[in-house]
Amino acid sequence: MNYKVEWEGFSERPVSGNRFGGEVAEGGDIQESLEKAQQMARMNNNVWLEEGITESYWEKKNEPMEGILAGTTKHGTLPAPEVMERAAPVFKILGNIAELLSVEGGCWRFKYYGQIKNKRGMEFYTEKLLRDEGLECTGVRFETGGRVRDYGD
After folding, report:
1. What is the pTM of this model?
2. Which residues of 14-51 are buried (b: 16+ CB within 10 A; e: fewer)?
């Protein structure tokens, strides 16, 4: 028994039923189909937008965040020198994976350079270390800028 089927090529398809230009008769106008295909290709990216449209979109989207430091790596107000002195052991433990950005209302913000997969645990660990030193700590936030993932994650 021979189960091998010889391939005869692709079946012939009629030109009608073109999804870009609707029903096109045999030998019909291809230009309309081409224009529709180009229009559909341009719908999913901003390369074809006029100058400044994308910039204005992002400005409008980020407008409500003006003046708010949460979610950014901007520096804010640092605590008094005596508080920094009391927090020195915590900074020594953290080493070079975290840099203090600000302390406002008991919330400590750090710029985090470590692995993203360890970020949440390091926030809790740092909060515990600060409370063990007797410092006011309502929360710890590690800011990473635009990083949401590392190569090895």
Report:
1. 0.57
2. eeeebeebeebeeeeeeeebeeeeeeeeeeeeeeeeee
Contact 74, 101 (CB under 8 A): yes
pLDDT of residue 33: 72
Say which residue the tokens 């949440």 belong to: 120
Neighbouring C-beta atoms of residue 109, cutoff 10 Å: 25
Domain boundaries, the chain: 8-66, 81-143
**Cα gap 128→105, rounded to integer Å:** 17
The reported pLDDT for the residue numbered 45 is 67
Residue 41 to residue 93: CA distance in whole angstroms: 53
Are the C-beta atoms of residues 101 and 88 closer than 8 Å to each other?
no
Q: Mean per-residue pLDDT for 121-129? A: 95
- The whole-number average pLDDT for the span 88-115 is 92
The two most distant CA atoms of the chain are separated, in Å, by 91
CATH architecture of 81-143: 2-Layer Sandwich (3.30)
Of 62-71, 73-82, 92-101, 121-130, minimum mean pLDDT range: 62-71
Please name which of 98, 107, 116 lies closest in space to residue 141, comparing C-alpha atoms.
107
